[in-house]
Amino acid sequence: MIKVSNLRKSFDGVEVLKGVDIEIPTGSTMAIIGKSGAGKTVLFKHLVGLMRPDSGSVVVDGADITRLRAGALKEVKRKFGMVFQGGALFDSLTVLENIAFPMRELTGLKESELLKKAGEMLKEVGLSGMGNKYPDEISGGMKKRVALARALVMSPEYLFFDEPTTGLDPIVENAIHALMKRCKALAPCTYIMVSHDIKEVLEMSDLVAMLHEGVIIECSAPEEITGSSNPVVKQFLSGSTEGPIQMY
Amino acid sequence: MGFFTAVGRAAILYLGEMGRMLLFLLQFVFSALKPPYRILRVIKEMHFIGVKSLFIIALTSGFTGMVLGLQGYHTLRKFGSESALGSLVALSLIRELGPVLGSLMVTARAGSAMTAELGIMRISEQIDALDVMTLDPVKFLVAPKMLAGVLAVPLLVAIFDVIGIWGGYIVGVRLLGVNAARYFDGMKESLEFRDVWGGAVKSLAFGLIVTWVSCYKGYNCGHGARGVGDATTEAVVLSAILVLAWDYILTSLLL
Amino acid sequence: MKEERMEILVGVFVAIGLAALAYLSINLGRLPVFGPKTYAIKAVFTSSSGLKDGDTIEIAGVEVGKVAGIGLKDYNSVVSMNIDSGIKLPDDTMASIRTRGIIGEKFIKLSPGGSETALRPGETIINTESSIDIEELVSKYIFSLSKPSGEKGVEGKK
Ligand SMILES: Nc1ncnc2c1ncn2[C@@H]1O[C@H](COP(=O)(O)OP(=O)(O)OP(=O)(O)O)[C@@H](O)[C@H]1O
Ligand SMILES: [Mg+2]
């Protein structure tokens, strides 16, 4: 379980997170929604220990990762996998090598085994035959899928997806959803995803949290959140330009 | 009032930067000492810093030696001591020009590229990705580069010295007619092992400085393409300044 | 295959670099790699005026060693010399301090004698000729002009 309490972070005097409280139960799929620039990616980076908060705590299975020393933090991080919003593929490695990379560096798998496994994973995300291309030779959606494959291949306990299907066509999107569900069925784990795709959020998650102006204003099951009385949530889910969320 | 505030702010900024650079160096040392040792990555970086710099080192050292031969000959001839050409060429190369010019060439060719590489990895979140995978980016990316720099630069400088000596030979002996035996005997007479050793110490230190500054600047690079560009410029300028400043300090310590 | 090629190239680079380093330090810098290539002997002179550390030691005009140090003992000058290991010196070798040209640098000239026993490392040469002091010589010359019975300017054997 991940428990975030009163998490605060500001950049150059601008407070982005103003006391985030959230509980992510083990085994759940939590979707975090919020308008662009709300601080979802920043929150993610705190959850995986890439950023240190100004104050507050992030407790992962009983250990507060904001206070852990390097060695202990590493132990906790082993449970994490992350799909970055921009993919963050290693651009000097081919697609196949990217997927094989974490296995090669972190497990004792034999070269032939891990290449086989990477090949299978590549097929799962619909990119078989692209293994020898470099990240800058493939499309944005393909990059996303490679990043997903790279994260899934290590079967982490907690998987963070920063917009896993943004930029994918509907067919591939559905295939990715199926893959995510299959992976979860195979090895029980916790998914935390950021998404702007309301359909995806409602289909995939069993908890939805909305981040607005630096705090979580609502966190409930998808069925409940669609009937929320909070005007901000209502407006966000309907996508209306009229309401408390101002574009300008 | 404004003046003192500005000076104070600048001083704090520079002191902070120096402190962070030192911490970065310590981080490198500790992570390099900790197993697992990634020899293959060091070899890869040796290939990048060493093998790929050979051509430019050969070219610049050849010309440096030839110019030394030419200038030295015309200066020494005024005193009737052309026979000292060999020791002039060898001493200038081994003590000063080899380490300094060699590491400046490495800065230009390899240091700037390392900064850009790390900078792009930083802004495209590849460094963060390594971090989430529990691969310490300093150990995984920086340590091999710095180790390779410390190993490769002294070897490059030794090659620089030898080619330079032969460049001086071609101009001094072949073109200008200094006696070949005098060229090499003079060299052997005036050169002491201490000179060679001092040159090696310098090039070792410069190898560390260049890769250290380049990696630090890339690793902590600012935002976007502009950030990478700025980091690269800063890395080259700071490397060059530090190399020259430490050249003076080391020379005064070694003499 | 790609990696192997890279490893080979790096190996070649390291080999060339080390060869260059070795050339600089052994051939040019005369790093004593294979044990000491010289041995030390001493010689006592009444004066070693003008002689410095590092001055050459010659036999028949060929360099065989270098002055390693000059000290004082019983108001005499004790000069330590490093002689190349290949050179064997009889124990009746004579050492004389000479000057290249009239006012050139000083060097020590060794004249081996006919003795069967060789000098061992650390031993002292007793037959010596000290520096010839030009000023002294000139003043003696002037002195001998006014007083025809001049002395010899050469030290006697001890
Ligand atoms: N490293 C940083 N330095 C300074 N400001 C930052 C940094 N990272 C994020 N911010 C700021 O924090 C705010 C939140 O950014 P974040 O990337 O978390 O948004 P987001 O919710 O992920 O948006 P999107 O849905 O568009 O990805 C933004 O205003 C951004 O300017
Ligand atoms: Mg984001």
Describe this structure in words.
Helix content of chain A is 37%, strand content 24%. By secondary structure, chain A is of the alpha/beta class. Chain A has a 6-stranded mixed β-sheet, sandwiched between helices. A 4-stranded antiparallel β-sheet of chain A has the order 2-1-4-5, covered by helices on one side. Chain A is globular. The termini of chain A are far apart. In chain A, 39% of the residues are buried. Chain B is an all-alpha fold and 255 residues long. Chain B has one domain (39-254). Chain B is built from 9 helices and no strands. Chain C has 158 residues and is α/β, with parallel strands linked by helices. Chain C folds into 2 domains: 1-31; 38-131. In chain C, 25% of the residues lie in helices and 32% in strands. Chain C contains 2 helices and 8 strands; from the N terminus they run αββββββββα. Chain C has helices at residues 2-28, 134-146; strands at residues 38-45, 56-59, 62-73, 76-84, 94-99, 106-111, 124-125, 127-129. In chain C, a hairpin with a 6-residue loop joins strand 5 and strand 6 (106-111). In chain C, 20% of the residues are buried. Chains in contact: A-B, B-C. Chains B and C meet through helix 2, helix 6 and helix 8 of B and helix 1 of C. The site of adenosine-5'-triphosphate (ATP) has 11 residues of chain A, from helix 1. Magnesium ion (MG) binds at residues 40-41, 85, 162 of chain A.
